# Entry
Amino acid sequence: MRWVTLFFMLLLAAVLQSAVPPVLVLGGAKLPFLLSVALYYTFTHEMDAMVVAIVTAAVAQDALGLVPMGFSLPLFFLVSMSFLSARHSLQADEFLTRMMIGGIAGFAVTLGLFLALVWTGAVHMDMGHGLARALGTAVAASLTTPLIFGLAGWLDRVAGNVLPEQMIEAKGRHGLDGPVR
Amino acid sequence: MGGVVRGRTYLFYLLVIAGIVVLLNLPLRFTQEVKSVLSDVCAPFETFISRARLFIDDVHAVTSDAIQSGNERKIMAEQIARLNLELQRIKGAEHELTELRHQMGFKAERPDLHLLPCDVISRGNTSGWWETITLNRGSDDGVCINLAVVTRDGVVGKTVAVSRKTCEVLLITDPNCKVVCEFAGPTRGFGIVQGCGVSSEQQVLQMLYGQPQGSMTFIDRDLAVAEGLEIVTSEISGIFPQGLKVGRVVQSSLDASKLYRRAVIVPAADLQNLRYVFVVIPALHPAGSPVGDGSFSIDHKAPGGEGVEGNEE
# Structure
């Protein structure tokens, strides 16, 4: 059931991210549901599910848009690995922590993507607007991340997967070899 | 002892029969008097009973009315809500019908074009870095990259990515979309229309005109470009058929080099509220693939690559 939940969440996130129009007041940022799903699996599941979630989310983000394939994956990985190394010191079951995690990840991924796209000449945008977009995505991600954490956690509980709180706790203690279900 | 009791019983019956006979034979006047007295004695009680019954009847009527009217009100409220929903649905359908009629009129106006009607299913794709829309038609319907996308009001953009069931359209307000255009009417002059992207100037103009802007560059510097001048696609535009409305000029000035004139334009099509668009499908050659693979071929590098319309660069 864990894989069913994972792919359901990825599908839902991809559809939502694609369907919800850019938010003009956030500098035209899209709501980064896929990034939030990748973050959820980084914090709550063991290595195999985490890797699948990150790769699929990043590939889906590129595939469903005009971003050249493979641009998002290193950024998703970089952000996820950074959080993975600091997961034991983060209380990822706290709402505000989830907001903070989403905000930082959204900012980092968008800024990285902006630099990559400008560097390859794919977009024409000045640094100020790129930063504004990154900040806008940070705000958007700080909203979507607690939402995805809540929804995916609920789905995991309903589906009979491990309780996210227990997983976070155990993963914090045991590292990547946390509780396997 | 038993004989005494039986004798009293007989006496009782006898008295009763005698009383009945007496009453039946009382004089009329006396009986009327008795009735009158009894009526007067009972009247207050009867009145009380009658009023009480009326009161109960009134209370019953009021409560039943209240319950009934409450039920009626509830039913009416439900009916009103249902009718409101129906009205909204009809209004939506009417609006949709009007828009579809408006758009389908374009097919009659331009019988020379093979127009494929499409629904806009999303905007901005998953990344949001480009001004794009996604349509519900793809390669299964004959759509390929670098086809013009238009509405009756004007040019929308061109297809830049195609899957079997969907296609991605780069809007003319995106800086990566370049179209060779000319001025309609007596003012002859060419230029390249390009989206402004996100800039402070665009944001100000967007607030003023309510939608994103584009710019027309490389206009002859001596040309008198008046505000409101209409811009249409040129015959030398490779992708877009000639004479399609693109937008109108809102202001013009010399560019930084002072060699050319540059005009800020407002797109003719309402790009913020697109629901239905047409993809201009080229005629098929006998082999079945779109004609003009040469004329439509572009240097399609990255989405933002230069030379979006190869033959006009």
User: Anything to note?
Assistant: Residues 127-158 of chain A form the longest helix (32 residues). The two ends of chain A are 10 Å apart (CA to CA).
